[in-house]
Amino acid sequence: MNSRIIFVWILLVLLTVAVGVISSFPFNYTTVAILGLSAIKFIGVSFYFMELKKAHIFWKISVLMYVLLFSVIVFVYI
């Protein structure tokens, strides 16, 4: 396996643990932090494990716009 993929996988595991730890803290921006980390995880999975980094620029922009739009909609309704 490529060492970059292993690094991304370890980063995804660490982000998952961080989301679990953050969810137990009683501060005001827990939802924002969890959503931000989840967006980073989504981009990591889509670009490295779904091979989106080799795809056409339309698909890259579409995925990034989806994450941005989803995050904005959730932020508005928090």
Question: Quick gist of this model?
Answer:
This protein is mainly α and 78 residues long.
Radius of gyration: 14 Å
What's the main sheet like?
none
The SS-based structural class is mainly alpha
Report the sheet-strand fraction.
under 5%
Tally of extended strands?
0
What is the count of helical runs?
A: 3
Report low-confidence residues grouped into runs of 5 or more: none
Rounded mean pLDDT is 91
Helix content: over 70%
Shape: flat
| Topology pattern, helix = H, strand = E | HHH
- How far is it from the N-terminal to the C-terminal residue, by CA? 40 Å
Please tell me the total number of domains: 1
Question: Would you kindly provide a written description of the structure presented here, covering whatever features stand out?
Answer:
- This protein is mainly α and 78 residues long.
- Helix content is 77%, strand content 0%.
- The mean pLDDT is 91.
